[in-house]
Amino acid sequence: MPPMTSPATKTLRTPAALAGAGLIAADEIAPLEAVAARYAVAITPYLARQIAEGGPGLARQYLPDPAELDATAEELPDPIGDHAHMPVKGIVHRYGDRALLKITHVCAVYCRFCFRREMVGPGGEGALTPAELAAALAYVAEHEEIWEVIVTGGDPLVLSPRRLAELMAGLGAIDHVKVVRFHTRLPVVDPAAVTDELVAALRAPGKAVYVALHANHPDELTPQARAACAKMIDAGIAMVSQSVLLRGINDDAAVLGALMRAFVETRIKPYYLHQGDLAPGTGHLRVPISEGQALMRALRGDYSGLCQPTYVLDIPGGHGKSPIGPAYVEGCDGAYVVEDPQGVRHAYPPKG
Predict the structure, then answer these.
(1) Which residue of the set 46, 102, 111, 229 is catalytic?
(2) Can you spell out the DSSP letters for 186-254?
(3) How far is Cα 281 from Cα 40, in angstroms, rounded to an integer?
(4) Is 314 designated active site?
């Protein structure tokens, strides 16, 4: 990577801007223009500095790659089947007791492996209008089985504190909703944007509020990012993590373990490690499931129980998530055989 020529002062959105900031070489501009025309590019000034100072674990997540134009037959525009479970605009109701509220399709940055890459960005579906948000909240209010609302997008924390407070007031008025969860990348891509005003806007009386932080490499958990997370945690907001298993980024036991330890040190409980979805043009970043299972075995053997995420696959077509981690127990001649983290097999008494 060429050295950064000058600090970025605004979000970088074109290959020419990336080259001007020294994140790519000048001769890469033309090949990447077709990629940027197809899939949104955005890198915040803070993140540009981190990429310039860091290694491939950051750059590969955010810088466009010509390989993104190489879609395969099994890849899908809507790989996890959002649209099959969308009763009203903005709501995805795949599981009985929880529903997604996709309030915006704008992000502070755009990941090169995003499973909603066909929907997000300047040319995507945008934010819900006031009328559309009212209809989405009405759906939640009418369905008393919805215990948790997961606010996602896009990245909901790019919205103003005023709009977030209005959203929480709306959800706060729905008695059967007990938990509100926000999915975001903001603390690791623009930590200064996590202001006291934003944190206050996420809270509502009687609601347990969680924030799920998406990060994939330990270098993302900088002191600034950890301080941004601490603002939320110290305000009473619980945090969990979600990561995607990615080729050349975290498909290494030491890197993955360091990431999980960084979460735990930041008081964030590792939650999900996602198998890469079948989004168009992301094959160069996907890791075979067998390799993911081997990595999970390595984590189990060498890292604290606090550092263990659940390795999951979101089944194409909208059929939901299933855990796909390695199995450690099997039946054998009326008894069990259990394998320990070192691969040694042990007999266990017969079924009672």
Answers:
(1) 111
(2) HHHH-GGG--HHHHHHT--TT-EEEEEEE--SGGGS-HHHHHHHHHHHHTT-EEEEEEE--TTTT-SHH
(3) 13
(4) yes
Provide the 8-state DSSP code for 322: E
Distance between CA atoms of residues 14 and 4, nearest Å? 16
Q: Which of 183, 177, 12 is nearest to 110 (CA)?
A: 12
Phi, psi of 321 (to 5 degrees): -90, 145
Q: What's this model's pTM, rounded to 2 decimal places?
A: 0.93
Q: End-to-end CA distance of the chain, in Å?
A: 61
How confident is the model over 100-128, as a mean pLDDT?
A: 87
Those residues whose C-beta lies under 8 Å from the C-beta of residue 185, and which sit 6 or more positions away, are 107, 108, 109, 111, 155, 213, 214, 215
pLDDT at 119: 76
Q: Is residue 242 a contact partner of residue 213, using CB atoms and an 8 Å limit? A: yes
Report cis status (omega within 30 of 0) of the bond before 154.
yes
pLDDT band, residue 75 (cuts 50/70/90):
confident
114 is catalytic: yes
Q: Which of 39, 102, 107, 185 is catalytic?
A: 107
The pLDDT assigned to 2 comes to: 56
Look up tokens 């008081």; give the residue: 267
Output the pLDDT for position 41.
Answer: 96
Instruction: Pick the catalytic residue from 178, 269, 321, 336.
Output: 321
